[in-house]
TrEMBL record:
GO cellular component terms listed in the entry, alphabetical order: cytoplasm
Name of this protein: IMPACT family member YigZ
Family: Belongs to the IMPACT family.
InterPro entries, per the entry: Impact, Impact_N, Impact_N_sf, Ribosomal_Su5_D2-typ_SF
GO biological process entries: regulation of translational initiation
Amino acid sequence: MFVHFDPDRLPGPGAGDEAGPVDYCVLPPGARHQHSIEVRRSVFSTLLVRVETEKQARDVIAGQRRLHHEARHHVSAFVLGADRDIRRSSDDGEPSGTAGIPTLEVLVGHRGPADTPLSDVLAVTTRWFGGIKLGASGLLRAYGESASAALSGAPLLRRTMRSLFSTELPLSRAGRDEGILRAAGIAVEGIDYHPDRAEIHLAVESGPDAEQRLSQHLAGLLSRPVQLVGEGISWLDR
């Protein structure tokens, strides 16, 4: 059974968020990081998983339900996308606003390498009730602390947006030019050979002047003007 999400109750991207995609941080691919705390005999165990779609998130939540079917609550929250514009949470039976929202706020507020915001992440906190009611304020603190404790020890990578370009090279100089670019630290994504020319594919860290910077750099390295063709963007985890 999938968790029900109520998007009308969730905070959207804040006024302080930067417009458009920016670098952000993620868990390593395939990583599953878990941490548990105990609050007045109740155990709160938060699992962090990297996800890229709502379906992936819901599949993980369903898996936690099956794995820990004896637990009373499986509270969840996730943030997706470079813009972090997909934000969902569920209290899963806890009093409204006391579990999913504080978990989501921890994810949204966390900063990773180079002060990058966190995204493409799911947090599922499974609670085993210890017999003592915590009250609304106690639940708010417990779920927030559980998510924070899990994140404090989680391995995070910086995800950088790169702009992709291609340019043509004379066949007679393609191998030499490729070697010059690689030696200068240019990210060469590949090279295609045609009967009358070669086409080299390059990547550079994105920015408003990415094309101009790369064009000028290539012209200096190759001692001739260079015309670039844009080929979109890609993301690099590092």
